[in-house]
Amino acid sequence: MPGSGLMDTREGLTLYRKLVLARRAEERIRQEYSADEIKTPVHLGIGQEAVPVGVCHGLPPDTKTFGTYRNHALFLTVTEDTDRFFAELYGKATGPGKGKAGSMHLASPAHGLMATSAVVGTTIPVAVGAALANAYRGSDELVAVFFGDGAVEEGVLWESLNFASLRRLRILFVCEDNDLAIHTPAKDRQGFRSIPEAVRGFKCHVMSVDGSDVMSVIDATRQLLTRMAQDPQPGFLHATYFRFLEHVGPKEDFDAGYRRRPTVEERERLDPIARFAQAIGQHGISPSDLAGVRAAVDAQIDASVRAAQAAPFAAAGELLTDVWAP
Ligand SMILES: Cc1ncc(C[n+]2csc(CCOP(=O)(O)OP(=O)(O)O)c2C)c(N)n1
Ligand SMILES: [Mg+2]
Q: How far is the CA of 136 from the centre of ligand 2 (A)?
């Protein structure tokens, strides 16, 4: 197993299942989207899966997590709950936000996923606040916050990193770097040499990782947590990955002119599921084991989509409950 000799068959299959759960759920959204029953905008994370799956695999179970609108793999890896996931996408009362949150504001506090948001950078200071609350309580619980490379151009990231570093808060910042903010690459947006170099000026532990390789993500997460335990300072994980689809919506957009289509060889290397399947194949897990996992995941998703389609919408009288509306 790359980067780790510790993984057994069961752990390998668990990780494969989590990667495939996120991937197949999003492939199903792509299939269903044109029927226009899913009304929420969807920011799909095909290519990104190994970052939330790998980081969460390395986190202590009582960690509080926060994320962005590109949150499907994060939600599914912490909850494994496709029923509530699809209910929210279909806008139904059985979703975690009763259908009022949609794809971009999925959360499940019971599983530690406290908030995700459509507004770039917004959950970063909230996560720092949660880490500060833990410090006040004398709790050694961890907070992890996921955000895109676009958030690094916002003042709030630097203010949050400054405060967390000053107060030595127990928080892991996870930058999911796909080199894009909508259609603009980092070189046209960022006036610093690189994200890790800019972050290294702060009193925190920094690591960079190939976010298409789930084993490397797990290893890096564990290394950062070890360093954070030995020398209490925040951690910052910079994980690169390739966004296979358009910024928002179910389609590819390689003909839009701002980037080129990856070659077949590049796709293999950038696809975290193909990468991981190849790696575990060398460790005694057979193609039929993997096919069995995919079939079980597809059956689960199918049942969840049907249940979501059949579920009721919230009653009209609930329109203004649970929302920030004056
Ligand atoms: C505060 C704020 N400014 C601008 C936007 C518009 N916007 C939506 S997505 C996006 C790009 C963000 O890129 P990144 O953080 O790298 O996340 P990615 O979409 O690549 O996952 C922008 C600028 C927004 N949602 N919130
Ligand atoms: Mg980005």
A: 33
Distance 179 CA to ligand 2 centre (A): 5
Pairing mode of beta strands 180-181, 113-117: unpaired
The DSSP letter of residue 108 is B
* Structure tokens belonging to residue 315: 């009653």
Neighbour count for residue 188 (Cβ, 10 Å):
8
pLDDT of residue 283: 80
Ligand 1 atom closest to Cα of residue 243: 20
CB 119 near ligand 1, within 6 Å: yes
> What integer pLDDT is reported at residue 213 of this predicted model?
98
What pLDDT is attached to residue 3?
46
Task: Decide if pLDDT at 282 tops 90.
Answer: no
Determine whether 223 is exposed, middle or buried from the number of CB atoms within 10 Å of its CB (0-12, 13-18, 19+). Answer: middle
Rounded distance from Cα 44 to ligand 1 centre (Å)? 13
Strands 64-68, 235-240: pairing kind:
unpaired
Q: Where are the chain's structural domains?
A: 40-75+103-285
Can you tell me the distance from the alpha carbon of 85 to that of 76, in angstroms, rounded to the nearest whole number? Answer: 8
In a 10 Å sphere around its CB, with 0-12 CB exposed, 13-18 middle and 19+ buried, how is residue 257 labelled? exposed
Output the six-digit token pair for 264: 């077949």
Question: What is the rounded average pLDDT of the residues 277-293?
Answer: 92
Q: What percent of the chain has pLDDT over 70?
A: 98
Distance, CA of 29 to CA of 44 (rounded, Å): 9
pTM for the model: 0.97
Determine the Cα–Cα distance for residues 34 and 37; give it in Å rounded to an integer: 8
- CATH superfamily entry for domain 40-75+103-285: Thiamin diphosphate (ThDP)-binding fold, Pyr/PP domains (3.40.50.970)
At 272, give phi and psi (nearest 5°): -65, -25
State the virtual CA torsion across 263, 12, 145, 43 in degrees, nearest 10.
40
